[in-house]
Design brief:
single chain; alpha/beta; 6-stranded parallel β-sheet; 3-stranded parallel β-sheet; 7 helices; 9 strands; disordered N terminus
Length: 269
């Protein structure tokens, strides 16, 4: 969902039932923020990704969190596919995320499968299939994932199903995640974007939603990691991604404008 202006911890992270599942969905415009404010030593927040294969722009590097590289498009000027393997090797990621919402961006499941086999399979690390929307339209969302797996014909090596979700209630979110698990029970799930879609109650509604969502996800053994949308401040979000603000609002931002954790951010640790 994020629009662009121009655009390791062993194995993944030590899994537990509760702690160690939360991550920061970072952006290219977060250079003035410190991800380390969420790394207070309790082990709740463990990961960070920035839609790119370059390190997160910030005042404090990765903030002591495990960086996950993402090849968000088949070939990007900011993250050239030719540099994927070398960037992974030099930075030492333990996991890679792939393709941002190809199901609604004109990339067919068969095209994605061929691309994945060529460029992602060779990486000897944990791998996530492309991140898909929660659309229930045939050929999108979980339907697209199923089509890609079929197109792979057993030749795509992956560890995680990658989900995005925006909607109006916790019940809808929970149903979506459970549906994904029921459809792909052999794989762990990562949820790399999720929030209420611009709720009338703003931040208060987002806080209530995330309280329920975090509790559910922490208790779901099949969920490996989750990343609330979005690790930025309202001012930065409005300046650099106004269409995103129209879609989701600023109430889910993890930072206040002064760089401290917001009311939603306070739920992270």
């Amino acid at each position: 969902m994020l629009k662009f202006a121009i655009l390791a911890i062993a194995v993944l992270f030590a899994p537990t039932v509760h702690a160690g599942k939360r991550g920061l969905c970072w952006t290219y415009f977060d250079g003035s923020l410190d991800p380390g404010v969420f790394n207070n030593g309790d082990g709740e927040v463990v990961a960070i990704y920035d839609y790119e294969t370059y390190a997160p722009p910030s005042t404090n590097g990765n903030g002591g969190l495990g960086f996950i590289g993402m090849q968000r498009c088949t070939d990007c000027s900011s993250s050239p596919i030719a540099d994927l393997a070398s960037r992974q090797a030099s930075q030492g990621w333990a996991t890679v995320f792939t393709l941002n919402e190809p199901d609604i961006n004109g990339i067919s499941a068969s095209e994605a499968a061929s691309w994945y086999i060529q460029y992602i399979n060779p990486l000897a690390i944990k791998k996530a299939l492309p991140a898909v929307t929660s659309s229930t339209t045939t050929g999108e969302g979980l339907s697209w994932v199923s089509e890609m797996i079929s197109a792979c014909a057993g030749q795509c090596y992956f560890d995680y199903i990658n989900l995005h979700w925006y909607g109006t209630s916790f019940a809808s979110f929970q149903s979506y995640v459970q549906s994904a698990h029921n459809q792909f029970p052999s794989y762990q799930i990562v949820i790399t974007e999720f929030a209420l879609q611009n709720p009338a109650g703003g931040q208060a509604d987002q806080v209530a939603f995330f309280q329920q969502a975090f509790s559910f996800l922490d208790g779901a053994s099949y969920v490996e990691l989750y990343f609330p949308f979005l690790a930025t401040s309202p001012a930065l979000f409005q300046e650099y991604n106004p269409s995103g603000v129209t879609f989701v609002g600023t109430g889910s931002c993890l930072y206040n404008n002064d760089g401290t954790p917001s009311a939603v951010g306070d739920l992270m640790y």
